[in-house]
Amino acid sequence: MKVNNIQSCHLGPEISPEQFIPEHFFMYLLKGSMTAYDGNKHYSLKPGDYYIARKNYLIRYTKYKEDDQFEKIIITLDEAFLKEFQERHPYVASSTDNNDSFLFLKENRLFKSYVQSLEPYYMGDLQIDETFSDIKREELMLIILKSEPWLSGILFNFSTPEKIDIKAFMNRSFRFNVSLERFAFMTGRSLSSFKRDFVQAFGIPPGCWLKKKRLDEAFFQISKQNQKPSDVYLEVGFEDLSHFSFAFKKEFGKTPSEVAVESKVQQ
């Protein structure tokens, strides 16, 4: 279903570009596709999909353009808005054991009509007329809760993450390029408690462990999986290729490119 005259638009507060979802958001893909990984599960998103990205999860996205375009509708369902909504519409939060970071919504006529209804309010340049922003967000929430009532247990859960096993979490999340403060928050700890518990679990400070873990993973990907250094460094949590190459050579005595060449020769 194509929405005439809308390429991309956004309602509500902007979403942080880092690999952490600070607030729930609804997304509908218009054009292009996307894959995502949360440390546990891979997700494939295609045009026509409706879903909610869940807050307090680590996510890495890969976007694929169609005809050099990637178009989507994003509506942020931030905590302040959700609390105000719950005051006006006293939904009781249901319980759920769903742990997915992407919650796919079943297509129905309400979602189709809603997306089409955004067109008259579209101002261009990604903007929906601010006068109607919260009204349209409230309408979307009513549709979501009518279509998928169980989501109340997720959308109206305003608690912070509970304290979890730091070792298991870090071993599946080390590839994500986020701050120690984020890792601490996601494991249910203050930064000081996180650092203390980390040393007890791994024997070394988190910064040292993260660097070595990421470099070891990069070495494996390059030497055993034939991955290119230019593709690997972002995947294992480095921001800069030159910094990655410097740290790699310091750790292994060879540059990533040298290891890649040796690996091809040995095969």
Topology:
Blueprint (H helix, E strand, L loop, with lengths): L8 E3 L8 E2 L2 E8 L1 E5 L4 E4 L4 E4 L3 E2 L1 E5 L6 E7 L1 H10 L13 E4 L3 H9 L4 E3 L2 E2 L4 H15 L4 H4 L10 H8 L6 H7 L4 H12 L3 H18 L5 H7 L5 H12 L3 H11 L1
Parallel strand pairs: 1-9
Antiparallel strand pairs: 2-7, 3-6, 3-9, 4-5, 4-8, 6-10, 11-12
Helix pairs in contact: 6-7, 8-10, 8-11
User: C-alpha Rg, in Å?
Assistant: 21 Å
Task: Please name the CATH architecture of the largest domain.
Answer: Sandwich
Q: Low-confidence parts lasting 5 or more residues at pLDDT below 50?
A: none
Quick one: how many beta strands? 12
Q: Approximately what portion of the residues adopt beta-strand conformation?
A: 15-25%
So what's the overall shape? Answer: globular
Mean pLDDT score = 91
Q: What structural class should be given to the helix and strand makeup?
A: alpha+beta
Give me the strand/helix succession.
EEEEEEEEEHEHEEHHHHHHHHH
Terminal Cα span: 48 Å
CATH level-1 class of the largest domain? Mainly Beta
Strand order of the largest sheet: 1-9-3-6-10
Portion of residues within helices: 40-55%
Under CATH, the homologous superfamily of the largest domain reads Regulatory protein AraC
For the sheet with most strands, the description reads:
5 strands, mixed
Number of helices: 11
Q: What is the count of structural domains?
A: 2
Q: How is the CATH topology of the largest domain named?
A: Jelly Rolls
